[in-house]
Amino acid sequence: MYEASAVNSNEHVVLDLPPENFNHNMAVPQGGFALLSHTPQNASLVHAVTFLAFDPFEELLWSGNNGGRVVSFYGGDLVKYTAFLSAKADIRHITVTETLVLSLTEQKLRANRRQGIPIFSYSSENLVNGTCMHQHPDVPNTVLIGGHQQKLIQLDLLTQKETRVVHMKQRDCLALRSNQKFIFSCDSAGNVTLQHKSTVDDLHALQAHQNSVADFDVCGNKLVTCGYSNRHGNLIGDRFLMTYDLRTLRSLPPYHLPFAPVFCRFLPTYSDSRLVVASQAGEMMVIDLNQSPSHMPIQLDLNGLALISLDVSPSRQCIAFGDQSGFIHLFSDRAQASFNEDAYPTDFATPPQYYREIMNFDESSSAYSSIPLPFSTDDHYLSDWPENLCVRCFRKPDPIPEQILESMKMLDFVGYARNPRVTFKTHNIQPYSNVTAASNRNFPADANVRTAFLQHICDLSLCLSCEIGFIFRELLKKSSLAPSFCALEDGYRWMKEAEQMDLAKKTRSFLEFTFSRLHKELGTSPSGFILRGQMQLNFKWERMPFCTLVEKALNVPEQTDALCAICKKQARISSTQRIQLLPPVLMIDAMINGECSFWATQLQVLLHLAYDSMKKFTSGVESFSVKSLLTDNEYICGEGANHIHYVPSNMEIKISDGICQVSEALNWVLFNEHIAKRLPENEVLHMDAAWKLPFVLFYRQENIPEVENKLASIPSSIFLTTSLFTPFLTNNICENLPKKGDIIAIALDGPSVIRVSCVNGNGDCFLDDYVKPITDDSSAQYSQGWSTASNFVNEEHLTSFKTIHMKLLYLIDQGVNFISHGENHVLRTLSISIQPEYDTMQLFQKPSKSLFPLDFLVSKLLGGVGDSSTMDCIGRAVNIYRLYKKYHELKDKGELNSVLTGLYECWKN
């Protein structure tokens, strides 16, 4: 009746705004619908449109065919938006969420973006023959899936997992609907079942038709169904609609129609009794349940084929039909129709730009590169060289240094290598302490305090220099594990001077306190360093070289109060120190308080506007060499210039095999709590207040030869400080101590280090010390663990943590191998790293299996009674050594695999 001409989607170009449709001025009957447009879903292949769904968020219409293809159309003109292949089976249902487009086939659910990007696929043994799905009304990220099966699946879209599988009493589920109270489902027996919204349990069933239910819809308190009945053994459609009142769950008088409907949908625009019904032959009618039909149905042009799918837009202004020939028919009650009242904007591809400007061939001032090159249809251009004149070559990758290859670890076929300059752990209380120690360590050995730290050992229990020296000792061993900073952090926490400073917030206070403390501790060391405290600059600001600024900062006058030698009265004395020789390492504290405001002002000082001058550009090519560009006075600014221009300090470029290689000989190294890497000079000179403040500059003297690191040896007399009685060491300490290659079992007590015990191969304990407890309030966990050992150990029998640390370092220097049982994380605080081949917990473990505790292995392998709560530290060390010997005994006999299998079976039981 009110039919317009067909619109071919191939004639449209997807732009930011769709073109105006020529059929918008059509005549629409009052209160009815007229054909707005129709288009084939696929112009090349004919596939039946099996399902239609309007997008509830954007101006899109989604369609699926029996070839597994999903196609979307934009606006009332049905301009093709996206098309993608979802599966190789027919699309039975489409549900659109805010971010996903869900397409259901017989045994698979596929999720895609609106642009066709696949997100996930879902298949399960519970999904055998799916036909319908419905988004859960209360949980938007959950869908219900039903079909020709007795299982109703509730799927979570976020985790892609089944949250509930409901076994229904009905033999199948053909369609799903919902309202504010119930979830509705229909089956092939003619029943419409009301189900609970939360548990999806059956509550009530309505017998609507003798045979299958073709379609049904719910609006408010009304339920409308259409279906089939058996007549003389044939399945014939009922020429009426069954209506029900959901408040009383009773049927109302049926509504008779001139044809047998297979689709029925509510159109609650201004009345909840208004519906659209359609037959399989293409007859469509808009009716009111309170009135009898007064007009003839509209016949769709289906070319003698069947109508398969129907859907109503969320705005109730459009109705879409899909037929067996692959055409989509869009009806509307107005000329300017919209699918949603308040739709989200749709993302479109950037339209191609066409340049129609023609340049003259003799025009030399215009650049042809300003015209974009369009994509070639056959991937060939006029400028392409023939294949016989071309040689395909690939870029050679840069060789990986040997140092990185040696430190690389393979994990899941991926090699991981540590940054050689990031040598400390980042998980500590004061992360900037890592930065300070790392910057001091990476200077030449004889030009910084690293040598002083390595050669310094004293008897003080709280010595920061010793703790830093212990860390540098471990770094020289090139271990694969990063050293721990716990001992150094405890040293800060124990010092009363540190309590008066906010070390956790002010890096300047941390540096002042650290270097003043180190200056006192290293005052008698062979390699000391010059320390200059915080100074106030008392001269006016003028533009001056950097060297002059440093000189005046070092030679600044100082004023102190002292007694006068003549009048014996308190007087203020002014003095000036003259620096005659700079130290090999110069540290400059360049931190300020108002970072952003300061640098914003400095950037304004360097901002100048150019002169109002113009130079004539001449065509042609003029040859300039790199040397002339950098040395001629015409191109370089002199000292008398009015403005400061940026000129690169040096340019080092190497051409090798057609690859430009920039020299890696960079003199600046950046250390912070995240990275440690070399930087080019231009990046260093650029000061970014967002991430480079506060900062400290370290300058080192050039051309300093490398020297070998000299370590201060730890004497064996350190073991004479053993507080408890150890008869093993009373005769001759030098002869009874372990030698190189010996295996020592070590055990510890407490959540932190409270007691340390070491046992040699003969079962003799040569080290058993208790650590003096920490009285600081921040170490409550440590003190709580100490309370269990303080009942039988007097305070006079305690030793310091540093003394135990030095004893273990002596054994490490002698080449002793330590074995333990899963205590590697505690031993890291003592600078001891246990290799996997010396850890009994990892030795008695199969790949991807659980770990065994010590008491379980002792009871099953050694025949003893292992109880960690009653076994002391020495007993655990003895059992660790016995387990290590038992492992090698089983391995030599070839019984290790069978014993481990028996242990896991016993562990399960």
UniProtKB/TrEMBL annotation:
<dbReference type="InterPro" id="IPR036397">
    <property type="entry name" value="RNaseH_sf"/>
</dbReference>
<dbReference type="InterPro" id="IPR028881">
    <property type="entry name" value="PAN2_UCH_dom"/>
</dbReference>
<dbReference type="InterPro" id="IPR015943">
    <property type="entry name" value="WD40/YVTN_repeat-like_dom_sf"/>
</dbReference>
<dbReference type="InterPro" id="IPR036322">
    <property type="entry name" value="WD40_repeat_dom_sf"/>
</dbReference>
<dbReference type="Pfam" id="PF20770">
    <property type="entry name" value="PAN2_N"/>
</dbReference>
<dbReference type="InterPro" id="IPR048841">
    <property type="entry name" value="PAN2_N"/>
</dbReference>
<dbReference type="Pfam" id="PF13423">
    <property type="entry name" value="UCH_1"/>
</dbReference>
<dbReference type="GO" id="GO:0004535">
    <property type="term" value="F:poly(A)-specific ribonuclease activity"/>
</dbReference>
<feature type="domain" description="PAN2-PAN3 deadenylation complex catalytic subunit PAN2 N-terminal">
    <location>
        <begin position="48"/>
        <end position="331"/>
    </location>
</feature>
<dbReference type="GO" id="GO:0003676">
    <property type="term" value="F:nucleic acid binding"/>
</dbReference>
<protein>
    <submittedName>
        <fullName>UCH_1 domain-containing protein</fullName>
    </submittedName>
</protein>
<dbReference type="InterPro" id="IPR050785">
    <property type="entry name" value="PAN2-PAN3_catalytic_subunit"/>
</dbReference>
<dbReference type="GO" id="GO:0031251">
    <property type="term" value="C:PAN complex"/>
</dbReference>
<dbReference type="GO" id="GO:0000932">
    <property type="term" value="C:P-body"/>
</dbReference>
<dbReference type="GO" id="GO:0000289">
    <property type="term" value="P:nuclear-transcribed mRNA poly(A) tail shortening"/>
</dbReference>
<feature type="domain" description="PAN2 UCH">
    <location>
        <begin position="542"/>
        <end position="627"/>
    </location>
</feature>
